[in-house]
Specification:
With about 190 residues, the protein is α/β, with parallel strands linked by helices. The chain is about 25% helix and about 20% strand. The chain folds into 2 domains: about 130 residues, 3-Layer(aba) Sandwich (Rossmann fold); about 35 residues, no CATH class. Homotetramer.
Length: about 190
């Protein structure tokens, strides 16, 4: 039975690397997985998914997947969605349709919450509807589990206000434990904000 998965984690937790490895595992077993991302995500270039550790693979945009005929989409053994936090609620419901009505498993990777601690719309809908929710874990500079995404400025101050989405600014984000996120403490080597 097909299921909808939501695998979430903070910035730098290897979500995209995991997505690319899952795609490779399907390919290695002679099955084809469809790699998809929302069109808003242009940081790695158009129609490409790239992890920080150098893994890359072509993909299609979510809107292109939606335009595919049912029979073409059913051909895939799995749909893998990167940056799923950028999906709308309605787009997540389309993924539910793919799983429930067409029997194609869907694995979504993304952030749960933004730099200010607010849920993204796509993540909120995935948390409400996914069959399986899994955390992709990483650690804070202190060694505790990182659960918060911190955005910081050039002086190392943790920001609490601003646009929810700032693409291509990977060097301005870091995963922190809740305590250090609340304190605005980026750790040794950063000025305390």
């Amino acid at each position: 039975m097909a299921k909808l998965y939501f695998r979430y984690g903070v910035m730098g937790s290897s979500k995209t690397a995991n997505a690319l490895m899952v795609r490779y595992n399907y390919e290695e077993r002679g099955q084809e997985a469809l790699l998809v991302k929302p069109e808003i995500d242009q940081r790695d270039g158009a129609k490409f998914v790239a992890s920080r550790m150098g893994l890359t693979h072509p993909c299609i945009y979510f809107s292109e997947m939606r335009a595919m005929p049912e029979e073409e989409l059913k051909h895939y053994a799995c749909v893998i969605v990167d940056e799923a936090q950028f999906l709308s609620r309605e787009e997540v419901q389309y993924l539910v349709h793919i799983v429930d009505d067409w029997g194609v498993p869907v694995i979504c990777y993304g952030l749960r919450a933004d730099f200010s601690g607010q849920l993204f719309a796509g993540s909120q809908e995935l948390l409400a509807t996914a069959d399986i929710i899994e955390e992709v874990k990483t650690i804070c500079w202190c060694g505790k589990k990182a659960t918060c995404n911190a955005r910081f400025d050039a002086e190392g101050r943790v920001l609490r206000e601003g646009e929810q989405v700032v693409l291509g600014a990977n060097d301005q984000y870091i995963g922190l434990c809740r305590k250090h996120w609340r304190e605005g403490n980026l750790g040794p080597g950063f000025p305390r904000g």
